[in-house]
Structures are given as C-alpha cells and as structure tokens.
C-alpha cells in the first residue's frame, strides 16, 4: 500500500486531523453510519506514472516483444506460399478466352489450364485457397442478404425467408433456397491440380474437401431442412438464379456434403471483411511417405471457368500455402512486434535520461512543506 | 444539447405578459354573509377550493405528459429522431441499438418520476383529507381540508397547522394575539406573534364568531411570505368600520399554532393560492461551466457527425458512378430501390450514415453525468468534517448540478454578520452623553448582581445626567421587538421572569436586540413582558414600571432604524428611536453629538456593532398627528410600504440624542484561516455588508482579509465629497496600474506572494454612483469599467453600507465583466438571498437569522469554515472527476466510431457496421460505463489532506482548465490515433492470410470483434492509467467490466439464439480466441494504443510538471523515505 501513511500535520486541530489510510484509524466518529466509504477515505492504492516507475515496464516490454517479434518473423518466413492469378485479363494468359466469352446462358463450361512451377517443395499439409479481389463481400446490401434461419433448417423460413434476401428471395411463386445475394453468388470455379512428373505424366494431387469450414458452422449453424432425403426436403423451392445445380446436388461425390451443409457453400457464406480476400478451397494432406506433400517441380492447374469477375474489374487467384501455429504467411505481425519492442526499448533509454536529469531534481526541490 | 425548451417558453411568455406584476384586489365575505345593502356591490369572484395539488401527473395523463416532458430535452429528442429514422428507412443498424438505450433511459426516468409523483399524491391526499373545524351557523362542523372555501371561518387549536392562509379574527388569549412558528415555511423556529383584528378580537366563541359581519378586501395572492396588505370592513350596526390588515394578521398555511389554546380565523387564500403553494415554484436552474463546455463539445461532435455522413455520402456516389461498382452482378438492388429518385436515395443514404455514426454522441453520457452528480452530492452530505456538532447539522445539497462549479470559483462574495462572524451578540458597553458604562461582571458567564456591576469610566454624573441615563436605559428596554419566552411549563407551574429564574429567556429575530435587552438587565433594567399593550420594566429599585405601547415603527434595512411610541405611567409620550449612526445623526437636533460620535467611531474601529439611541417627547397634539399619518398609510391598499416609509420619515425627526451602544459580534471559528486559504487558492474575496465601514474594516482585518501589508484604497462618500468621483476613480486606477505595470503579466498568478496587494473599500452610496448608467456625460459610462479594472487588481474588496439588492448588483456586475468569472456568494440571512440567487453558486449558512438563505441556496453549510473543505476538497475533486468524465466519454466514442468510419472506405461506402448490433448497443451501456462512473465518484488525484493544507493547488484547475480546447483536442486526437491503430492493425493482420493453424478463414464479423475487443480493453486501460485512487471498488468494477465483456461475448456467440433472425456472431469470439495470432495482435494493438499517452504523461510530468503533479510525486517520495 503505497499511500498508507501520509500523515499530514493537520492545521485545524478540531478534527484530530491525523487520518491514516491504513484502515485502522479511518472511521473515527460516534455516528454508527459513518464509514470510510462515506468519508471518501477508503484505503486505496495510489500509483503515479513517473519516468521512474514506467522505466522498468518499458524495458520489460521491449525485452519481451523483440524476441516474440523475431520468432513470429522467422515462422512467417518459413511458411511457403505460392500465388497465381488466373483471371485472364491479358490476351496471352490461358484463361483469356474463357474470361471474355463468358455468358450466363451457356450450358457448357469453359475450361482453361495454367502451368506453374514450384521452386521449393511444400512440406506438411498444404492449403489451397482461391482469392478474389475487388469483390465487395462486405457490402451492406450483400452481407445482410441471407436468412440464417433458413440455413439452420427452419421449415417456415425455408418457404418464407426473410425480406433481407430481396431481390434473391423468390422466382415467381417458388422461394429460392438458399435465398439471398451471398448464396446466389457462390464461387463455382472448379480447380484441379496436377503434378507433372519428370516423365511428363500428369499426376492428380488429391484435394480434400473436408475441414475447410468451421466445425461449428458445419455441425450447428448450418442444417438441412428435415425430410426423407434432400430432394424432398427442398421440394417446392427453386435454385438460386445463378446456380447451375440445386443446392442438394452441390457435391455429387459425397452425399453428406450436400444441401446447406456443403462445406464450399459454408465457406462462401462467411462473408469476408475486406474486398480482397481469400477463402479456403481444398486441403492437400501430407502423404504418408517421406516425400514432400508438394515436391518442387512443374504443376498444372485445371480450371473450370464459371465465375465472371471482369465485369467489376475483379481478379481471381489460386494460392497454395503451408501453415504454421500462427496461421498463414504474415510478416506484418512479426515486424510490428519487433518495431514496437524496439520503440519501447528506445523510449526506456530516453526516459532513463529524463529521469536522471529532471525527475530527481524536481523531487528534491519542490516538495511542499 | 441539454438545453430546455422551457427557457424559450418563459422568454416568450415574458414578452407577451410584460414584466409588471399586476396585483388587483379580492373581496372576501366572512362566513359567506352578504354585506348590508347600500355598500358597494362587489362581483363575487370564484376562488379555488383548498385542494393542494403538488403532483404533476394524474393516472391518465402520466404517460403522454411524462413522455412529452422527457422528449423536450434536446438530447432525448435527438435519440428519438435517430430511433424513428431507423424505424422508417433501411438503416445499417437495427432500431434496437438506439431504441433499447433510449427506452431504458426513458423508462428509468419515468419510473423515478412516477414514484416521486405517487409519493406526492399520497402526501397531497393526506393533506387534503385532514379534518378541519369550520364554524357554520354558530356550530362547529368538521370538514375535509380540501372542501374549505374562501370566507369560511376556521377554528384552529394549539399545535395544529393552519389549513390555508387565514386572517386572525380572535384568539383564546385576552390580548388577541397568538404565537406561531413558521419552521416548516422558512425554518425559523422562534415564536412569532400575530395579532387579531382589533374589532373582532372580542368574539371568542363560535356563536359570537358567526355573528361577525364583515368583508375583507385584500390583494390577490402573491408569493412573498412577508408581504400582505388588506383591509377589513366590519359592519357594526350597518356602519362600516375599516381597519388595515398587514402580514401581522395573516396566518400562513404550513405554520403551526403555539402557546395559544385556539383561534378563530377566516380563510382568504385557499389551495394553490396560498403563499406556501405559490412558493413551490422552483427557482431558475443554474448551469455550470462544465455543462457549457460539454454542450460546446457536443456541437463539435455533431459537426463531426454530420461531416462524416456528408463526406461518406459524397464519396459513395462518386464511387458508385461506375455501374459495375454500384450494382455488380452479385449484388443487385430490388426493383423498388432502383426506381427511387437519386436525391431521395442520397438523402436516405445520408440519414443511414447519420444513424451508423450516431453513437459518437452517446445517450449514456447524459445518464452518467446525471448519476455522477446525483450520487456524488451524497459525499458532500455525508462529510463528517462539515458536520456541526452543536447544531447537529450537516451540509445540505439543494442542487447537485453545480458540484464541479465549486472547484471553479474565482470570486467569493461573503456577507459579514452571521457568516464571517458568529452573529452571537454580546453587549459590551454603552455610552450616555459621553459617559461610558461597561457591565464588566461577566465572570465565567455568571452575572454578578447589584449595582456593583456598573463600571463607570467617567466621573459620576450629576442628577440631571442620572435622569438622562435612566431614560437611555428605559429607551433600550422599550425600543425593540423582543419577546419574552415567559414561561417554562414545569408540571403546570408557571415561572415568571421577575422571579429571577434563569429559565426565562428572550427571543427575537435580531440577535442585537436580545443582546441589548440582556445588557440592560445587567445594568439594572429588566424588561419583563408585553401585556395588554403595556410594556413592563423592572427598574433598579425593583419597581415595575408600565409603559403603554402605542406604535411600533418596525425596523427595515433601508431606514436602518426602528422606533416605538410609548406612553409612560405619568402620561408623557415618547418616541424612542434606535438605529445605525448614519441614520440617526442627521435627524438629531440636540444632544452631545460630538462625544457620542467619537465613541461610536472608536468602537467601530474595534469591530463592534454600534447603535445610536435617541428620543423625542411627543405632545398629545403631535401624537394625534402621528397617529393620523400612520393609520392613513396603514390603510392604503396599494404602495402601502412606500407610504409607510414616508410616514416614518416624517415622524422620526427632531430627535434628541441619548447615547450609543456597542455590541460585539465575534468572528466565527477559523474564519481567518478560511479566508486566508481562499486567498491562497487564488480566489478574490469580497465582503458585502450593511455594516459601517469602520466595523466592517475591523472585521476584515481580524479575518485577515486585509493584512498589515495591504494597501487600502478607499472609495467612499467621504472621499467623493472632497474630490469628484471621476478624479477619485482615475486616481485609484493610476495607483493600481502603476504598480502592476511594473510587474510582468505572468507574475499575477502569484498574487498571494509578498508583493503589496491592494484592498478596496467602497460604500453603497458611492457604488450606486459608479453603477449609475451614464446620462450626464459620456465619461460616467466608463466609471464601471474603471471600477472593474481597479477591482480586478485588488485581492480583497470590502463593500459596506450595502442594501440587499446592491449585493446582487455587484455580483451581477462581476459576472458580466469580460472574463466572466465564476462567482460564489455565501450568506446566512434574508438580505443575502438576492446575491445567493444571482451568483453562479449560492451557499447558505445555517445561521441564526432563519432559513431563508439556506432555502434559496444551492448548497448550505453549518459554518463559514466549512467553505474551505467544500471548495478546496469537494469542489476540486468534482471538477477533476467531471472533466475527466466528459473528456473520456467523448474520447471513448471517437475510438468507438472512427474505425467504423474508416471501414466505410473498404466496404464501398455501404454503411456496413463494423461491430455486431449487441456490441453497438452495449458498448456505452455496460462494457465501458461503470468504470468511468466509479472513477467519477471515487477519484482522488491528491490526498484530501494535502488539498486542504495547500490551497494553491486550487489554482491548477482554475478557469476550467481541464476542459479547454487544447485538452479536448488532445483527447480527440488520441481517440483518432487509437482508432487508426485498431483499424489498420486489424487490417494488416487480416490482409490476405489465414489466422488459424487449420487454415480456415475469418470473416468480417471476426474482424469487427477483434477491433472491438482491442477497443474495450484499450478504453478501459486508458482509464486505468488515469486513475490515481484505487479502492477495492475501483478494482472490482474495472476488472469486473472486462470480465463481463469476455463472458458476455462467450455467451453471445456460444449458442444459437432463438427468436433472432441472424446468427452472425455464432462462435466468432471463441474462434478468434482459439487463434494465437489474434491474442498476439490484441496485446500488440493495446500496447501501441496506450503507448503515446503513457509517454506523454511521463515526459510532461518530468519536464513540465504542474504543481499537482509535483505534489503527487512528493507524496510518493516522502512515503518511500518513511518506509
């Protein structure tokens, strides 16, 4: 207790002024209801920020932050990341034709192939993302254009979803399931990755769909409506305008990955914070053999180009990344920690000088009697 | 913002009605009996019944009326508009976010007001239904109080309260008087005597009373408790006899009958027209300087809000000019939206932005400020150091709105008598024709008997002088309004005063008179009582002398004297007059004026209160004339006071001087210490008194207002007689300015230092000459300015010979001077009320002169010395507390809203909120509200003992210095910086990367939650940095509110909430916490946010410490050395 015994010689001896904050001699009156609280004399800790008291804190912060920062920076640098833009803006890019001949009505899908080389092998699990730029998933009209009740399998909301879904709520008399702009604009490019063996043969890299969405989303927040099977459950609803398939046929390969609990769909439904974002697409699990998950060498990315972005000047990317305990590659955090740590250290030194030059002097000089 | 529309309304009504208070008369028929034919026919007026309605609402109109009252506050109205906008147009946040807090505030206020009104209803009912005995047709019947009507004759018994305003007709006492205490009206517990109408006092049974045939004409009700004029026409045998009625005949509702068995009286003002009810009206509200700064800041923030909305709307339409951005294929508008006109769309967008950013002006600030003021005022009331053990009184807070203003006082205007001094008078000496008498025998408070107690300084007088001496003593025994509390009922036995029992005592509204009468008792002349119009005196030879009291010319502060006309047993008639020397000497034609004057001045210099006594023998003819003049004036219905004053002026002349008295009024305990502290705290203390210059100056020296080193400047009638006012003023200002011209400007802060300071003495007459608006020449307009300039440079000013209104004028003049200083007026008597009401802060002393000052004050304290703690400790604390509260509230809402503003640049200006609805709603209500409220109640940046010991610390907060624009801008810039750090910190962390070890991505709600978490912690830690006084309550609330935030977030995201149509926060908070980088970035961002403030604090403290900071550091080091 710092200010425990400031014992002022009280000039008006009337109230026996010597009041200590220690607690023992606090309340001294006949009044039974007179408490230290009422007299504003509760025992209290009275810290004061001076150069002297803050100094150690600065050094400690500096000493803790700099190592953390270095650790983060090194971790981040060890993460391997590969990114390729396949939008097809330039004439010489492989997807140029697909991008420019896009039409909503076309029934056949357009495919293009992008070749790339990984200079270094990717170890452990590799995560495959698709990235979109200039896509405002955080636009207010867009963000609210969904019905969480419908997505949670609510029978009434399935037939009569919230008005927030407008203008993607109904087609004629049939309600759209899943309704809203977010669902309607579901990213529907398919990406396939092939490793080009030194022999020249294409070796398909296995892409896992499971585990790309939050567990809680997949199991609690998103639920299919009740029904014998999915087509019956979704009976009487229409597919979103821009979709080619109804919601219960999203993943023909895995019956458990259909309807609202389709993981690609769930990932898309978590709206991104910024207009340039990436979303987890597939996971390439580490293989049992001792070889790297993605050995260095040439790769082929096969794209089924369904998703138009040129109209709003958007870009599409494919990203391959390894992950550490701190997530993906992000040098910012490490650099920030190092910077802040150094600043604190530097300030500590400055304060040390100030403390020695000024604090001691003012302390001794100006204590009032 | 907090401005009331009511101010406007009163202004308008004032212009429509005009200022004059037109009071016409009413006629009351006693017992509802028509006057005999032939007399003037009056149109019978309709009077209200005797129902008291103090409640504001009825059951039916409570909701609409209370809602209307509440939404008249601009702040509430603003939030209502925001709420309605949210209801009507499509806005980013749901109406709940602003509706819920508003609903909460409105409901709490409504419940509080409803409860108070219910209590009032109950009280009203109890009052209105209490039984009253009314005389009807010669019989007593019982009525409910509310059924009482004007003209009813009422029977009131001892210890009962008067049910309405009554004219006393007759009393059970033979002399037609009754005793009344008005304790519940004005707090004076002394018994006051009221008189029955002369012609009706014989009617003492109900049969007789119901025979009275009379009408009363009187003025329409007005709220002044002490003014009443009326006339009663009694018809004896159809002959009307007119008698004057004054306030001595009027029994007020609320007063209680004492020492009188019963009375009969007639109701003249009933119900809401009684003087008590008319006094219900609250006085105009005072607003503190802090509140004014707060409103200024609000305007700034309103501008920021509007400009934010305008900028965003503008940018939105600029950005949207590309149709692919406006409506990309993935995000189309509905048809109805498309068809809307562009201007309407722009306007709705503007409104939506306003709604999005409206939290920058928080509802909760008003609630918190109100709560802080209300709860904080309890600490003043609880303070034991402001408890007066003798009186058993604590400080009283009548308005909690001004707590912080106590820390801003620059000018203290204090009354002298009863405020600086005890108002406990002691008779010191008297002087008859130059012979001085001192009753020296006050040994240990015991009065020694016999003639030996007279100590004559001069040679013993001759027989002629002895006669004059006795006349002087008799004059003092007769010329007063003292009552004898003549009986102390012990087992029914009555002890008279002549038995020498000390159980009897004198009561008077003026302590001087008691002192004089008691002094005379010691000199051998004992005033016994007033009985049947006869004043009885026990003279030195133990004989009872009787004088018939013919007239009393009561005291008033304008005349400054009073007189009585008595007839001695021998039939001679005298007028005895006593009063201030200045009001007696000009009227004296005979007597040893020079000697008396010399003695009076000598006494005055010693600080004694002096009164002069004179007499005038009256011949029967003269008396007849006097009677005529007086009754003429008394019967007047209009301007009675003026006519009375004129009559008094004519009667009280040609006096023969007898001598003078001196009464000591001791200084209050520690008055000097208090004044010295106030001086050291940089306050200018002005003493405003009605007393003589010499007496007042002596008190000022004794109370250290003037010190030996003080150079006294005089601006008195004496000087202006020699020189013209013009010259004197210029002389003085030259003296003052020459001195200060030599000093550098910044030195003026060290006024209390060793340099010579000036004291100014001015008297009422000169002051009114100075204040008189310039008519004759253009120069006189400048007098006020020059005078103010002189006053500014004087540390102490004494204004003597002041009329009550002049006191208020001075306060007003200083208030209006160009620095607009904060003024405080402190006084104890009715004559201080005007200045108490005028000053920014009015403080009443619970003195001996009744409770009027206390009732009209903002704060009341038992003793003058309590002012020191009130200002230096409580005022200082409350100012520090509320200024931090205000700054912090604006800061935390800038930090809150600015990220949302920046976010608009990244979401296509679509008004997408950054935070979830629950966070938007609860941020100000619960996450960050309690710590600052507790801070603003508990903070003690410096120990209170140090504050008391070192008054100069008060200067550190002078001139509203914690709420000046630079500090406000610092806080705002800090807020913007913090907001930038939070937003861009989160932005770069989220930039295109995964945050989790399983590669999954976070969405916009996690982004917002991250910013919000940093926000709540930063804002709370900012307060942690500012708190200097950590009690367990602070710890509990600060850490508790952080824990609450975490627990709430876990719960809010923990389940799928039924009845909610969105689940966007589901598991967002927990997912965020499961990610390591999120933790690291939260810690990093909080550190970066707080860093500049800490560095600024530390460096400023080290390089440019304020006195406060030096002392804080000093306290620590002294502690360390102790340990």
UniProtKB/TrEMBL annotation, chain A:
InterPro entries: CDC50/LEM3_fam (IPR005045). It comes from the Eukaryota. Keywords: Cell membrane, Cytoplasmic vesicle, Disulfide bond, Glycoprotein, Golgi apparatus, Lipid transport, Membrane, Transmembrane, Transmembrane helix, Transport. It is found in: Apical cell membrane; Cytoplasmic vesicle, Secretory vesicle membrane; Golgi apparatus; Membrane. Coiled coil: none annotated. Belongs to the CDC50/LEM3 family. This is Cell cycle control protein. It comes from Nothobranchius furzeri. The lineage of its organism: Eukaryota, Metazoa, Chordata, Craniata, Vertebrata.
Automatic annotation (TrEMBL), chain B:
Keywords: ATP-binding, Cell membrane, Endoplasmic reticulum, Endosome, Lipid transport, Magnesium, Membrane, Metal-binding, Nucleotide-binding, Phosphoprotein, Translocase, Transmembrane, Transmembrane helix, Transport. Residues 854-1106 form the P-type ATPase C-terminal domain. InterPro entries: ATPase_P-typ_cyto_dom_N, ATPase_P-typ_P_site, ATPase_P-typ_TM_dom_sf, ATPase_P-typ_transduc_dom_A_sf, ATPase_P-type_domA, HAD-like_sf, HAD_sf, P-type_ATPase_IV. Its cofactor is Mg(2+). It is a multi-pass membrane protein. Residues 44-98 form the P-type ATPase N-terminal domain. The active site is at residue 415. GO terms for biological process: phospholipid translocation; positive regulation of myotube differentiation. Residues 131-204 form the P-type ATPase A domain. The chain crosses the membrane at residues 71-89, 296-319, 350-369, 918-938, 968-990, 1002-1024, 1036-1060, 1066-1091. It is an enzyme of class 7 (translocase). Its EC number is 7.6.2.1. Mg(2+) binds at residues 415, 417, 828, 832. It is found in: Cell membrane; Early endosome; Endoplasmic reticulum membrane; Membrane. GO terms for cellular component: early endosome; endoplasmic reticulum membrane; plasma membrane; recycling endosome. It catalyses: a 1,2-diacyl-sn-glycero-3-phospho-L-serine(out) + ATP + H2O = a 1,2-diacyl-sn-glycero-3-phospho-L-serine(in) + ADP + phosphate + H(+); a 1,2-diacyl-sn-glycero-3-phosphoethanolamine(out) + ATP + H2O = a 1,2-diacyl-sn-glycero-3-phosphoethanolamine(in) + ADP + phosphate + H(+); ATP + H2O + phospholipidSide 1 = ADP + phosphate + phospholipidSide 2. ATP binds at residues 415-417, 513, 555, 578, 609, 689-691, 801, 807, 831-832. GO terms for molecular function: ATP binding; ATP hydrolysis activity; ATPase-coupled intramembrane lipid transporter activity; magnesium ion binding. Component of a P4-ATPase flippase complex which consists of a catalytic alpha subunit ATP11A and an accessory beta subunit TMEM30A. NCBIfam families: ATPase-Plipid, ATPase_P-type. Belongs to the cation transport ATPase (P-type) (TC 3.A.3) family. Type IV subfamily. This is Phospholipid-transporting ATPase.
């Amino acid at each position: 207790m710092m200010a425990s015994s400031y014992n002022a010689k009280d000039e008006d001896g009337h109230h026996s002024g010597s009041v200590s904050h220690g607690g023992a001699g606090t309340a001294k009156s006949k009044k039974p209801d007179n408490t230290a609280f009422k007299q504003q004399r509760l025992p209290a800790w009275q810290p004061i920020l001076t150069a002297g008291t803050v100094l150690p804190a600065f050094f400690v912060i500096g000493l803790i932050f700099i190592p953390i920062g270095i650790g983060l920076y090194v971790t981040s640098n060890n993460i391997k990341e590969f990114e390729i833009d396949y939008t097809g803006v330039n004439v010489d890019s492989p997807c140029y034709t697909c991008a420019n001949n896009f039409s909503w009505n076309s029934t056949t899908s357009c495919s293009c192939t992008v070749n790339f080389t990984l200079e270094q092998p990717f170890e452990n699990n590799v995560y495959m993302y698709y990235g979109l730029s200039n896509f405002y998933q955080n636009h207010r009209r867009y963000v609210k254009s969904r019905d969480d009740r419908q997505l949670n399998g609510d029978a009434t909301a399935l037939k009569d979803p919230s008005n927030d879904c407008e203008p993607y709520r109904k087609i004629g008399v049939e309600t759209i399931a899943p309704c809203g702009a977010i669902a309607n604009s579901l990213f529907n490019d398919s990406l396939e990755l092939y490793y080009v063996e030194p022999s020249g043969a294409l070796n398909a890299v296995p892409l896992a769909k499971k585990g790309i969405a939050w567990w809680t989303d997949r199991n609690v927040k998103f639920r299919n409506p009740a029904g014998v099977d999915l087509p019956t459950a979704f009976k009487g609803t229409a597919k979103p305008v821009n979709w080619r398939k109804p919601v219960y046929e999203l993943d023909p390969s895995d019956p458990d990955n259909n309807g609202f609990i389709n993981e690609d769909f769930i990932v898309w439904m978590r709206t991104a914070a910024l207009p340039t974002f990436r979303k987890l697409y597939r996971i390439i699990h580490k293989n049992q053999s001792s070889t790297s998950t993605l050995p260095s060498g040439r790769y082929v990315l096969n794209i089924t180009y369904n998703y138009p972005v040129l109209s709003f000047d958007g870009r599409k990317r494919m990203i391959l990344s390894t992950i550490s305990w701190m997530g993906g590659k992000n040098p910012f955090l490490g650099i920030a920690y190092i910077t802040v740590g150094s600043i604190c250290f530097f300030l500590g030194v400055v304060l040390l000088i100030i403390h020695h030059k000024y604090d001691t002097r003012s302390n001794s000089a100006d204590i009032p009697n | 913002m907090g401005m009331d529309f009511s101010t406007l309304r009163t202004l308008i009504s004032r212009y429509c009605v005009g200022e004059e208070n037109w009071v016409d008369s009413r006629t009351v028929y006693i017992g509802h009996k028509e006057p005999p034919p032939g007399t003037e026919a009056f149109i019978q007026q309709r009077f209200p019944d005797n129902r008291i309605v103090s409640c504001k609402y009825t059951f039916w109109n409570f909701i609409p009326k209370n809602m209307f009252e509440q939404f008249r506050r601009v702040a509430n109205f603003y939030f209502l508009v925001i709420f309605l906008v949210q209801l009507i147009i499509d806005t980013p946040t749901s109406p709940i976010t602003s509706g819920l807090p508003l609903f909460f505030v409105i409901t709490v206020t409504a419940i509080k007001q409803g409860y108070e009104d219910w209590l009032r209803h109950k009280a009203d009912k109890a009052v209105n239904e209490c039984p009253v005995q009314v005389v009807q047709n010669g019989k007593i019947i019982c009525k409910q109080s509310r059924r009482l009507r004007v003209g009813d004759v009422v029977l009131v018994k001892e210890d009962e309260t008067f049910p309405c305003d009554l004219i006393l007709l007759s009393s059970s006492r033979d002399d037609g008087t009754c005793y009344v205490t008005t304790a519940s009206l004005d707090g004076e517990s002394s018994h006051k005597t009221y008189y029955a109408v002369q012609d009706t006092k014989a009617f003492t049974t109900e049969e007789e009373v119901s025979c009275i045939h009379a009408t009363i004409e009187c003025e329409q009700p007005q709220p002044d408790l002490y003014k009443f004029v009326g006339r009663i026409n009694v018809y004896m045998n159809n002959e009307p006899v007119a008698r004057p009625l004054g306030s001595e005949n009027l029994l007020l509702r609320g007063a209680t009958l004492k020492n009188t068995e019963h009375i009969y009286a007639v109701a003249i003002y009933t119900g809401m027209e009684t003087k008590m009810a008319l006094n219900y009206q609250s006085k105009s509200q005072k607003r503190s300087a802090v509140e004014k700064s707060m409103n200024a800041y609000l305007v700034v923030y309103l501008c920021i809000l509007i400009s934010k909305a305008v900028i965003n709307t503008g940018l939105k339409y600029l950005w949207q000019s590309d149709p692919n951005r406006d409506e990309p294929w993935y995000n189309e508008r509905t048809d109805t939206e498309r068809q809307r006109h562009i201007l309407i769309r722009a306007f709705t967008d503007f409104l939506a932005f306003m709604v999005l950013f409206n939290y920058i002006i928080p509802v909760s600030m008003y609630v918190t400020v109100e709560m802080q003021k209300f709860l904080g005022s309890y600490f003043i009331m609880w303070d034991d150091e402001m408890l007066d053990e003798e009186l058993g009184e604590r400080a009283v807070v009548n308005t909690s709105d001004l707590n912080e203003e106590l820390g801003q006082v620059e000018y203290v205007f204090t009354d002298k008598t009863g405020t600086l001094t005890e108002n406990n008078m002691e008779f010191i000496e008297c002087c008859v024709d130059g012979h001085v008498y001192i009753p020296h025998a006050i040994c240990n408070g015991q009065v020694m008997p016999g003639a030996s107690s007279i100590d004559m300084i001069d040679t013993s007088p001759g027989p002629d002088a002895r006669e004059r001496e006795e006349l002087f003593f008799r004059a003092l025994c007769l010329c007063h309004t003292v009552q004898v509390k003549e009986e102390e009922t012990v087992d029914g036995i009555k002890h008279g005063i002549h038995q020498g029992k000390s159980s009897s005592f004198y009561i008077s509204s003026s302590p001087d008179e008691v002192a004089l009468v008691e002094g005379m008792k010691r000199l051998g002349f004992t005033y016994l009582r007033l009985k049947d119009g006869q004043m009885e005196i026990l003279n030195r030879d133990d004989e009872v002398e009787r004088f018939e009291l013919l007239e009393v010319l009561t005291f008033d502060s304008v005349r400054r004297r009073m007189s009585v006309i008595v007839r001695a047993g021998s039939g001679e008639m005298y007028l005895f007059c006593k009063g201030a020397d200045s009001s007696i000497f000009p009227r004296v034609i005979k007597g040893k004026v020079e000697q008396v004057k010399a003695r009076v001045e000598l006494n005055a210099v010693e600080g004694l209160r002096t009164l002069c006594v004179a007499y005038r023998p009256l011949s029967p003819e003269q008396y007849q004339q006097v009677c005529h003049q007086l009754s003429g004036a008394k019967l007047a219905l209009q301007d009675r006071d003026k006519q009375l004053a004129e009559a008094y002026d004519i009667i009280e002349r040609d006096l023969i001087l007898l001598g003078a008295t001196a009464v000591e009024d001791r200084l209050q305990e520690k008055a000097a210490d208090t004044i010295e502290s106030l001086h050291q705290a940089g306050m200018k203390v002005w003493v405003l008194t009605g007393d003589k210059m010499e007496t007042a100056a002596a008190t000022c020296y004794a109370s250290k207002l003037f010190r030996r080193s003080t150079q006294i400047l005089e601006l008195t009638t004496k000087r202006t007689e020699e020189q013209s006012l013009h010259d004197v003023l210029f002389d003085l200002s030259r003296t003052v300015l020459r001195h200060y011209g030599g000093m550098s400007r910044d030195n003026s802060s060290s006024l209390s230092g060793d340099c010579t300071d000036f004291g100014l003495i001015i008297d009422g007459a000169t002051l009114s000459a100075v204040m008189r608006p310039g008519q004759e020449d253009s120069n006189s307009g400048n007098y006020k300015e020059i005078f103010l300039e002189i006053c500014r440079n004087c540390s102490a000013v004494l204004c003597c010979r002041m009329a009550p209104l002049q006191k208020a004028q001075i306060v007003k003049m200083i208030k209006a001077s160009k620095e607009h200083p904060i003024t405080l007026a402190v006084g104890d008597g009715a004559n201080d009320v005007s200045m108490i009401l005028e000053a920014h802060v009015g403080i009443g002393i619970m003195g001996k002169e009744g409770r009027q000052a206390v009732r009209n004050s903002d704060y009341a304290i038992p003793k003058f010395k309590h002012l020191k703690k009130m200002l230096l400790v409580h005022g200082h604390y409350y100012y520090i507390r509320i200024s931090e509260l205000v700054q912090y509230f604006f800061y935390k809402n800038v930090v809150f809203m600015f990220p949302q503003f920046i976010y608009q640049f990244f979401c296509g200006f679509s008004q997408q909120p950054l935070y979830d609805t629950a966070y938007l709603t609860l941020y100000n209500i619960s996450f960050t509200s309690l710590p600052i409220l507790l801070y603003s109640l508990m903070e003690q940046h410096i120990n209170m003992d140090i504050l008391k010991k070192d008054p100069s610390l008060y200067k550190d907060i002078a001139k509203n210095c914690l709420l000046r624009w630079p500090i406000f801008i610092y806080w705002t810039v800090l807020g913007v910086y913090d907001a930038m750090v939070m937003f861009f910190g989160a932005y770069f962390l989220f930039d295109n990367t995964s945050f989790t070890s399983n590669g999954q991505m976070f969405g916009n709600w996690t982004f917002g939650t991250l910013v919000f978490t940093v926000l709540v912690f930063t804002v709370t830690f900012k307060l942690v940095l500012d708190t200097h006084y950590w009690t367990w309550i602070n710890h509990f609330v600060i850490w508790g509110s952080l824990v609450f935030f975490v627990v709430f977030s876990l719960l809010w995201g923990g389940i799928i909430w039924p009845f909610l149509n969105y689940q966007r926060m589901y598991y967002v908070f927990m997912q965020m916490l499961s990610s390591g980088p999120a933790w690291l970035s939260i810690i990093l961002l909080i550190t970066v946010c707080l860093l500049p403030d800490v560095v600024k604090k530390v460096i400023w403290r080290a390089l440019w410490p304020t006195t406060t900071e030096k002392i804080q550091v000093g306290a620590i080091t002294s502690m360390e050395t102790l340990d």
